[in-house]
Design a protein that fits this description.
alpha/beta; Rossmann fold; 2 domains; 7-stranded mixed beta sheet; 5-stranded mixed beta sheet; binds nicotinamide-adenine-dinucleotide
Amino acid sequence: MTTEQSAATLNAWAVAQRQFDLAAEKLGLDPGMRKVLREPRRELTVHFPVHMDDGTVQVFTGYRVQHNLGRGPAKGGIRYHQDVTLDEVKALAMWMTWKCAVVGIPYGGGKGGVIVDPKKLSMKELEGLSRRYFTEISVLIGPERDIPAPDVNTTPQIMSWFMDTYSMHVGYTVPGVVTGKPISLGGSEGRNEATARGCVYTIVDAAPLVGIDLKKATVAVQGYGNAGAIAAHLMAAEGSTVVAVSDSMGGIHNPAGLDPDKVLSWKKEHGTVVGYPGATEISNEDLLEVQCDILIPAALENQITARNAGRIKAKLIAEAANGPTTPEADEILYNNGVFLIPDILCNAGGVTVSYFEWVQDLNRDHWSEAVVNAKLKEIMDRAFGETVAVSQREKVNMRTAAYLLAVKRVSDTTALRGIYP
Ligand code: NAD
């Protein structure tokens, strides 16, 4: 692979468009429709000042992208990370469109991001940045227009500041403008665990198809945040053995098993999983290749590429992260018989419970965790079953099958609505 090619294939937006093109080709989508769905509807870039604790003013850059609004308001998280780019946010917004369509919830796709390493900010600076960023993007935001949520490095506290900022501007409390809030501010039971819980529901559905007995299975998890750490906990609750986990500082490995809850306590105390007693240190690259039955990428994009896909030992990959696998790697994994549950299906539990949160907020209602989890399970099981059926019928991998379902649903709606004016 030339440097130029590898740079293009590792650009998340190029990856997202190629995944879409594959589905559009297979669906025989009308050329006009292809042009419409291949691009985001709106891209907003903002540069905004924040007062820093040392008395200086720093200017940050952020984005909010709305990919498609055909099926409802835009929905998608906001990421704080030093490597955020407009192309990454565009890809994440497009993936949200397909994700909402796969699970059949009435949203379009959106995503936001700020170029910042939030670990370098004080709480006061983080609050100032969050409130000003939300103010800047508020031209697009609203409970009927675009409803943000958490993503990498954004927390229920940050969602509270977003909600309060919007509410201050309009003069009354609007809980439905953002999801992933603390329960006391209109958050939903089960939202914090929802991405991981939905991911584990799909693993439970997939295991018999792959011949995996979850009670005897070993699991590796890349990324130990909201999605990854809770997925590790829930896999242990299924009786599986978690043998390796990692975060941005590196990974740890113990073939005899790690206790996910103790690892989380260690991470909370030390800021990383690295150094956890009784485990061998490994790199993030090594983690992907450890001996295990189930691999859960739960960090960032482009982790499984043509370079390492052939060395992956897992029989089942569950993409808790968005975009962890490149199209070249997809092909290698499929040819090697690895069963992959694609991101737009696997991690859709997060947006599904965000949808529940929004419905509860609009109705001033509050559901029990049992109700939330039961509704989530019904939606995830149905979406998984529909995707497997398409995959078997069309003889395509699970990602293409999920895309065929999603792109068809979005293009049907877009065709019905027609082109304005
Ligand atoms: P988070 O900030 O809670 O956790 C991210 C974790 O990844 C942290 O442990 C961090 O140290 C680790 N990490 C960062 N860079 C890494 C690297 N290069 N290698 C290994 N680990 C690294 O974020 P999250 O909300 O858990 O999001 C993780 C992934 O899940 C993202 O792809 C996100 O888009 C996706 N996702 C999240 C949600 C949600 O509801 N939070 C929903 C759907 C998808």
